[in-house]
From TrEMBL:
Keyword field: Phosphopantetheine, Phosphoprotein
PANTHER family: ACYL CARRIER PROTEIN, CARRIER DOMAIN-CONTAINING PROTEIN
Organism: Planctopirus ephydatiae
Name of this chain's protein: Acyl carrier protein
Domain Carrier per the UniProt entry, residue ranges: 1-84
Length: 92
């Protein structure tokens, strides 16, 4: 699997959020700078669901410490791309 583009990750996250939040997340709220808890109003259960979606969709494993450090949408994108890059580097 190749490293996904930032747009692909944002689209996947937006779909997950719409499913979780009952379509209450407006596209204009969903920017890379958006803070997960504050602007997107995600609680700890929502963040856990997003984490599971990320791990399933992108075939990466997030450590608890990494997941806890995610504050913005940009943080999520950067972590996914970093993890996928590392996974590609490790494959023979």
């Amino acid at each position: 699997m190749s490293i996904p583009t930032r747009i692909a990750i944002i689209e996947q996250m937006h779909q997950s959020l719409q499913r979780l939040r009952g379509r209450r997340v407006a596209v204009d709220q969903f920017t890379e700078e958006a803070r997960l808890s504050e602007e997107l109003s995600l609680d700890s259960l929502d963040l856990l669901e997003i984490r599971f979606d990320i791990e399933e969709k992108w075939k990466v494993e997030l450590e608890d410490k990494e997941a806890a450090a995610l504050v913005t949408v940009k943080d999520v994108i950067d972590l996914i791309q970093s993890k996928m890059s590392t996974n590609l580097d490790e494959k023979p």
